Amino acid sequence: MRGRTFFDDMETRPAVFEALHDVMNMAAAQKTPWPEICPPESVISRMKPQVPLLVDVGGGTGVDIEQFRQRLPADAQYELILQDLPSVLEGRKVENGIVPMGHDFFTDQPVKGATAYYLHTVLHSWPDDFAVKILEQLAKAVEPGYSSLLIHEVVVDETPSDWDPMVDLYMLSQHISRERKEKAWADLLDRAGFVIVKVWRKSGSIESVIEAQRPAE
C-alpha cells in the first residue's frame, strides 16, 4: 500500500484537479519542447510495423505527445498512445493519430514492446521506492534491447547551485520527493533493470531527456 498522496487528494476535488492540469499545461508551454531536446528521429528511425511508436505515460491532457506528433513526417504510419487516469482523460479532445487510454502507472502496463515509453515530470513527484514501482511496471512491458524509456525531467548539476535547496524543500513538502542528479537517476533506473543510454541536453533548457533501456538478454 502506498497510502494517501497529494494526487489522491486532487482526485477528490475535480475542480482543483482540473485547475492543476491547466496550470501544468501553461507551464509546459513555456518550456523547451521535448522534441527539441531529444530528436524525434531517434525514435522514428527504430519504428517497427504494427508496433506502437510512443506511449506517453501519465501524459495528462497530451501537450507533450502532440508536440511529438507535429514533428512526425506527414506520410508516416504510426500509433501514439496517451495514458493517464480516466478522470484526467475524460472529455479531453485529442488529435488524429493519438489514442487515449485510461491507465494507472502503478499497475501492469498494457502496451507491450512499444518503440518508446515517455514520462514527463512523473517520477520527480514520487520518492524513490514508489518511482521504482512505476519503473518496474514499464520494465515488464519493454522489449529488452529495443524499447527506449524517455524520462523528461530536471537532471540536477553535480555542482550545487543556490536554487537546489529551495527546489528540494518544495518537492519534499509537496510529494516527499526530490529532484535528482544524474547518478541518482542511474541508481533509480538500475533498481528496475534499466541502464542509461544517453542524456539528451539542450542549452537554455532546465530539463533534459534521459534515454534508458533494458539490456538485451
Would you mind describing this structure in some detail?
- This protein is an alpha/beta fold and 217 residues long.
- The chain has 8 helices and 9 strands.
- The chain has helices spanning 6-11, 14-30, 41-44, 63-69, 86-89, 128-139, 164-175, 182-191; strands at 54-57, 80-84, 98-102, 116-120, 148-153, 155-156, 180-181, 195-200, 208-213.
- The longest helix is centred in the N-terminal third of the chain and has 17 residues, at 14-30.
- The chain is globular, with a radius of gyration of 17 Å.
- The two termini are 32 Å apart.
Strand % is: 15-25%
Strand element count: 9
Number of helices: 8
Mean pLDDT across all residues, rounded? 84
Largest β-sheet summary = 7 strands, mixed
Instruction: Give Rg in angstroms.
Output: 17 Å
Strand and helix order: HHHEHEHEEHEEHEHEE
Distance between the termini: 32 Å
| Quaternary class | single chain
Poorly predicted segments: 170-177
Strand order of the largest sheet: 3-2-1-4-5-9-8
Overall body shape = globular
Assign the structural class, choosing from mainly alpha, mainly beta, alpha/beta, alpha+beta, or little secondary structure.
alpha/beta
- Portion in helices: 25-40%
